[in-house]
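Collaborator request, handled under Task 6.
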Amino acid sequence: MTTGTADIPVGSELPPLAAGPITRTTLALFAGASGDHNPMHIDTDVARSAGLGDVFAHGMLSMAYLGRLLTDWVAPEAIRTYGVRFGAITPVLAEPTATGKVVAIEDVRGERHATLDIAVTLPDGTVTLTGTAVVALTGSTVTTL
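Structure tokens returned to the collaborator:
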């Protein structure tokens, strides 16, 4: 269901995006799609030689989940800025959830903008990514909050 943007208050939360388990297949497919074949993400022996127990997800995969969170809410062309800070690794088999919250709304050169705090969190509470995004609401429709 969609709604106009006039009714979106500060404090609104975007519908969370549960990514499902990060499997070895997920990592191999993302490596092929992104061109990032860093063995830390796909070769258990290399990960163990670096002192890790297993491979872990590409940081950009988690960033892609946040991008999908945004584009599930507004059209891609409504995204004005989007940036993240990587905070922790996402282990294989983890189940990340992308979330977002409207923290400000303002008019900028005739466009209504929402500033969002966004994050990816694991079930144990580990926050793997944090960031912000600014999206244009003028002329957009959004998924109902």
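The cover message to the collaborator said: "The mean pLDDT is 90. The longest helix spans residues 59-73. Please let us know whether this matches your experimental observations."
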